[in-house]
Amino acid sequence: MENEKILVLDFGGQYNQLIARRVRECNVYCEVHPYNMSIQKIKEFNPRGIIFTGGPNSVYSENSPICDPEIFELGYPILGICYGCQLMAHLLGGVVAHAPVSEYGKTIVDVKFCSILFQDINPKTTVWMSHTDYVQSVPNDFKITAHTSVCPVAAMENANKKLYAVQFHPEVMHSVEGMKMLQNFVYKICNCVGDWKMADFVKNSIRELREKIKDGKVLCALSGGVDSSVAAVLLSKAIGQQLTCVFVDHGLLRKNEADEVEAVFGPNGPYQLNFIRVNAQDRFYEKLRGVTDPEKKRKIIGEEFIRVFEEEANKIGEVDFLVQGTIYPDVIESGLGKSATIKSHHNVGGLPSVIKFKEIVEPLRLLFKDEVRKVGLELGIPNVLVFRQPFPGPGLGIRIIGEVTKEKVKIVQDADFIFREEIAKAGIDKQLGQFFAALTNMQSVGVMGDERTYDYAIALRAVMTSDFMTADWAKIPYDVLDVISTRIVNEVKGVNRVFLDCTSKPPATIEFE
Ligand code: XMP
Questions:
Q1: 484 vs 420: CA distance, rounded Å
Q2: pTM
């Protein structure tokens, strides 16, 4: 039997996949499609309901994305969010105008309990607003179901036609009861029961991968991190021995990591994978010599990775597909969506233009980190691997500010090892989303055993996060920090100072470069 489905129509907003993810959290299957999906295709998709996303445009701007108004006549429940709300008003005869006061950030909204969308929601609830236009007057047969002090139509609906719209973003965490509103839409308005599970994702992905790859040969870029490990095991379940996993030791891995990865995925590990380890450390150090610009470093590491893979692929001969463990936050932060480029994550934005594979396969591309972990558990991957903290593709290359050298790699590896060891000893490793040591490019004066030193400063970075898109800096107890700092300065040659990074994301990012 086919799963219930919600269709998300993408009008260019930055939270589109987040909406999809929230619907998946309701155990309802969901796909994001372009705003101009044809009416015919929508009918074939057969959704239980449709969500219009936000977007950066005004309904009046030239080339603003507009869907076919016939969509409102199909009988599907629709929820318009932000731009989606304005578009619904505009297409159905309401008036959208430039708001006299723009609203950005947390806002208190007054909601009407009589709306099904707001059932069990507090009459005054905090939501996330981000708009410059607003609905000035609602279309005929619509009523206003929420307002703020400056926004007369924070929500509107025509319950008979099952058309609902909110000016705010229920999908973001700052909208305190946003998830409840989405649940109301999905369960009470679209009448979904929630029949979709991660096991279905695994089953469907395996089927789709088999259909796509047929008897082709596949190379997987295995880093030993959560994402590529889950991708590799998923692929191996789908196509078995057609898959070869290549693990590149680029000399920018954590201390002992290369051996640990080999122990799990290599010939003595629990999986029957074709596993190749390439020791390419010197080659990477050579390419990175003298390079200080973070984006250049990322691009160089990314490009060199691909070259190594290509060489391995040529040895195997006729490789059709390259698998990568790209996940959704990598995709948007690399600027492949419509949001600004923050960093080019090397497994996406940093791809070289000439690539000698038929196609890149990214089975986790639409998932968030915690969803990838759920997939990992579904696949029977051990907890230690599934809950391993993420490690970026460019590795320590982006945790060493400025030029990367073998010596600096050793410093940061040793400091990081101590940091991780002490955090685990203190029993707080499971509470932290990610934590690591980075090497600042700063040297300063210290004194050790009556000698003047002029050594590097290590920065400790620890964050709490569930989706890695936003993160709070972690308040590690002072006594734990004290031990870490003392050990690092005493045991790691070349370090005489330890800093704690106490910035959240935003405004900082998790990694340093
Ligand atoms: P940022 O630094 O962007 O990191 O806040 C968010 C998450 O992404 C990881 N990260 C990367 N992962 N390739 C990856 O596979 C990359 O180039 C990359 N850069 C950052 C980072 O470790 C954090 O978990």
A1: 9
A2: 0.73
